[in-house]
Structure formats: structure tokens, C-alpha cells
Amino acid sequence: MSHARRLGGGRTIAALFTTALLASTTSFAQEAVQNREDGVFADRIVFGQAAPLDGPASALGLGMQLGIQAAFQEVNAAGGVHGRQLELISRDDHYEPARSIDEVRRLIGQDKVFGLIGPVGTPTSAATQPIAMETNVPFIGAFTGAGFLRDPKLANVVNIRASYDAETETWMKLLVDERKLKRIAILYQDDAFGRAGLSGAVAALERREMELVARGTYQRNTTAVKAALLELRKANAQAVVMVGAYLPIAEFVKVARSIDFDPTFVNISFVGSDALASALDGEGEGVIVSQVVPFPWDETNPLIAAYQAALANVDGEAKPSFVSLEGYITGRLAAMAIEEAGPEPTREAFLNGIRKRGSFEMDGLTLQFGPEDNQGLDDVFLTEIGPDGAFRPLAGPQS
């Protein structure tokens, strides 16, 4: 015979206790879920990307997207991070600041992403990083070397690549120190991105007691470069350093060579090397591009072997490129930082973990951060387009 005391309606005290305990447990579970950061779910963590996925700079946004997806899929196939899968939502900002602001607000306010990853461009980053800062959202791996993002006071910013100042200094080591050229001109996109490269080039020449012999500009998202070309040719430049996207740069080089103006052409990494070589359509031999990640075709490099395998798994027809490799490194760092942040990651723990851990090893590539250093890599590599249209290393890395 049961000795459980019965209450009205046939319920026992034990049953009532069990019901209360279940309700309490459910309440605590719901509260735990409610207290999770945006973008953190029971089975996944969601990142957002605002980048050009269409238009003249689309190869850059799509390349970063592909690389991040390759890294995330690699991690997910191995069980994810603390049992959660990594997910990427990408939105097209057309490489325009106003559109980028709208898309970032959607990613943060509507999609509720954990962090922003792989944004492309200086003017777009200048417009959107403050939004991320105001909402305490991590801003990870921007495809730009702009100096303002290297400010250690920007606690939500994590950079992967070397700065534009480092790239422009490497240019001048080659052109002035090694090749002894005296007449250096510049073509740059007339916006925050172009002016960042201009500033670096001017400073690098000033350190050598030199100055630019001419400056030419073009407008973002156009290929209107002919007026600038005539200005630089008139200056009889021996080298033209270039701060722009692949379509206008390719147009400049092709038209320049068609009128027998053939100085040494040197491009900043943002140009998108593979897209540039393709747009040059066989007319790119000798064009130099500075790079901020290792050579993506060097299969003897363990990182490159892992990257190529991950790339093939996410898209069997994708070809290695500098841009997607940068995206891959960015995605792997995000995964490692999530791991560091623990089973219930917060944005604060994610960012603090990067600063406190400092060193992140990726198959022989080391990213180094610190309390006053939000940039993981410092090396710059020089590459050159060969007669077959493929890139080849021109020199080793220079810090």
C-alpha cells in the first residue's frame, strides 16, 4: 500500500515536488539560453560578413567568404567547437560605405551574429567598425591594412594582415634601395583606402629623402583611369605604385602598355592578385604585387596543404588564391578563439582570449597578439606575374 500523501485532485506531494523541480530546471535552462550571447545557439555559433559579393570588387568579398567557409567546414567536420558548428552569413555591401552600414546593422540587429568577420575595404570598415564597437561586436580579419584599425584602443578589432605602411615600405626597399629608381609615381583610388596607401608611400619615400614625381587618382567602383595615366606618363615615371582594386588597375596597365608607357608596376595586396592576373588577360608579365599571407601554391608548406584540402572540400572547382587563403586563416583564428573562450563563449571572452593567449600556431604559421598589438601577422611578401600569367615569389618575407 502506498504511503504517499494525496492532495486534492489525486496529486501526491511527491508528484507536486517532481513537477516543481522540472519547472525549476526548465526555468534555469531557459534562463541559460536567454543569457547566451547573440549568435550562440545550442548547436551552432553564427558569424556575419558584409563584403562586396557583386560588382568590380566582388572577387575580394567572394574570396574571403570562400576561405572562411573552408575553415569553418574543416572545423565542423571535426566535430565543431565545444560541440557547436560554425556558421557564416554573408551580405553584399557592394564595396560602398552606406550600403555596408545597412548590411552590418542587419547582421547585428536582425541576424544577431556573434561577430563580424572578413569585411572588405578601408572605407567600408571605417564606416562599420564604429557600429560594431558601439554594440560590443568583434570585428575580425578585415581585408584592409588601414592604419586606423591597428589602434590598440579598438578593443573589438582583431587584424590578421600586415599594415599598408609595411607594404609600402617593402615597395620602396625594392624600387629605391635595390633597383636604385629615382622617379616614383602613384595611382590611387580617391577614398580612404587610396589615401591610406598614398600616406604610406609618401612616408616611405620621405625616409629616403625623396618624394613622388606624380600622383593620379580614379573614383571607387569605376575604371576611369585614363586621365591619371596621361598625368603619370607626362612625369616620365620609372615606377608606378598602385593602390586600387583589380579592374581599374588592370585597365591602367593594359592601356599604359598600349601607348608604350611601361614602368615597373607595383600593386598593394588589396588589388586581388588572381583577379588582377585574370583581368590583365596575358598582359601582366612583370607586374609586382605585395602579399601579406604565404604563397598559396606552396604544397610543401603544411598550412597550405591544409588550406588546399579544406578548399577542395568546400568547392571542388575552387583554385587557391591569396584572398581565400587570408579568409581561411581568418576563419581558423576565429575557431581557435571560440575554443579559447570556453563552452559558453561570450564576446568579451572571445576577444580577451586572443589578447591573453597571444600566440596562435597554425601548421607552422604563428599569429602573435598582445595587449597593445591587435595584428597577428607582420610579414610582407613580394610576388610577380610571370610570362604564363601565374604568380611567382619575387623575394622572401620582410618584416
From TrEMBL:
First and last residue of the signal peptide: 1-29
This protein's UniProt keywords: Amino-acid transport, Signal, Transport
Entries under InterPro entries matching the protein: Leu-bd (IPR028081), Leu_Ile_Val-bd (IPR000709), Peripla_BP_I (IPR028082)
Signal recorded as keyword: yes
Chain segments annotated as coiled-coil in the UniProt record: none
Family note: Belongs to the leucine-binding protein family.
Protein name listed in UniProt: ABC transporter substrate-binding protein
